Amino acid sequence: MAKFGKNSSKEMPAISTSSLPDIVFMLLFFFMVTTSMRETENKVTIRLPQASEVVKLERKDLASYINIGSPIAPLQAQFGTDARIQLNDSFKTTKDIRDFVAAERDAMSEADKSFMTVVIRCDQQVHMGIVSDVKQELRRCSALKIMYCANKTAK
Amino acid sequence: MAKHKTPEINSSSTADIAFLLLCYFLMTTTMDQDSGLSRRLPPIPDENQKVEDQKVNRRNIIIVKINSADRLFAGNEVLDVSLLKDKIKLFLTNPLNDPNLPEKEAKEIGSLGMIPVSKGVISLQNDRGTSYEAYIAVQNELVKAVNELRDEFSKAHFGKTYINLDEDEQKMVRDAVPQQISEAEPKDVSKK
User: Fold this and answer.
1) CA A146, CA B130: separation in Å to the nearest integer?
2) Which of B65, B131, B133, B181 is most worth mutating to test chain A (most A CB atoms within 10 A of its CB)?
3) Around A109, how many Cα atoms within 13 Å sit in the side-chain half-sphere?
4) How far is the alpha carbon of A11 from chain B, nearest alpha carbon, in Å?
5) Is B81:B65 a contact under the CB 8 Å cutoff?
6) What residues in B contact A34, CB-CB < 8 Å?
């Protein structure tokens, strides 16, 4: 007991915090690497359909997004409630898809161009007419790899 | 020569700065990954190309139509979406070698030897008024049918499910059970 008593009379050594910045920096780098900023603002409401056989998008950097849906509430006064196509940050028509695909292709490196995937994010209430038009236009631009975005069914 | 030591920079606040950055990235990060059904669109047919060589034998095609009221027709009969998968599986396997179901062609598949491969093609047609939800539901059933067939094939030949096979084996299974879904040119299904 004497031994312990002697020890407790001393002050507790403070925990060294000098490695705290290192730990935090490590976390920081992790989030910096895994983060992907949302580049565009959604101007259409999209409730994705459910599907059980979905696969994950492998390379996010090779994906270009086409959003289809009815405009969000604040924009409905201007654009109505009919389904619209959103490319990047603005409403476009099917005619603009060609330029959009060309621009997206140019931004990729030569090796990646053939792997370009067009991700169609479409609201579940949208009629297929507009989607068919988009698909036809994509075929004309020979952007043939597409993905119908869907949520995995909760089991 | 100055005898003064340069004063050390106080580094006790680096932790705070790093925390601040960390919080920023924590807030802005989006970890959700996009998922969906992958498809390959057919290229626009060349005008000079002969139409004849694209013709597929009638028995090898099943036509799946969805009309503007989201009603489903498969092989000329009205069907519920929940029954589509079994119909497609029957169509692709043709277990009784029915002359009205697709023919099979023996193909050399990797190390497995000759395997009869179905020549069946699923042709998916939709109306302009079909809702996207119904379309995806049907697409999903078609993929599910093929995936289940692949699983059965892998279990029979490798004793494992498709997802647990290595890359070469998966390729063999994909060759043996191809996913032949053709998305036809858009047309008005409602108009006869």
Assistant:
1) 19
2) B133
3) 3
4) 23
5) no
6) 29, 31
Phi first, then psi: what are they for B40, rounded to 5°?
-115, 120
Task: Divide the 192 residues of chain B into consecutive groups of 10 and give the mean pLDDT of each group.
Answer: 72 80 79 78 68 64 84 83 85 80 79 80 85 88 89 87 85 84 64 41
Token duo for residue B15: 């932790």
Q: What is the β-pairing status of strands A145-149 and A117-122?
A: parallel
Q: Contact B44/A142, CB-based, under 8 Å?
A: yes
CB distance B25–A35 less than 8 Å? Answer: yes
Number of H helices, E strands in chain A: 5, 8
Residue B33 neighbours by CB under 8 Å, 6+ apart: A56, A57, A60
Give yes or no for B42 touching A (CB within 8 A): yes
ipTM: 0.71
Residue A3 contacts B where some CB pair is shorter than 8 Å:
no
Looking at chain A from residue 55 to 94, which residues have their Cβ under 8 Å from any Cβ of chain B?
55-57, 60, 63
- Model confidence pLDDT, tens digit, residues A79-112: 887 888 888 778 888 888 888 888 888 888 888 8
Longest dimension (CA), chain A: 89
Chain A contact for B170, CB < 8 A? Answer: no
* Length in residues, chain B: 192
Best probe of the B interface among A35, A97, A153, by most B CBs < 10 A, is A35
Query: Directed axis angle between helix A97-106 and helix A128-140, to 10°?
Result: 50
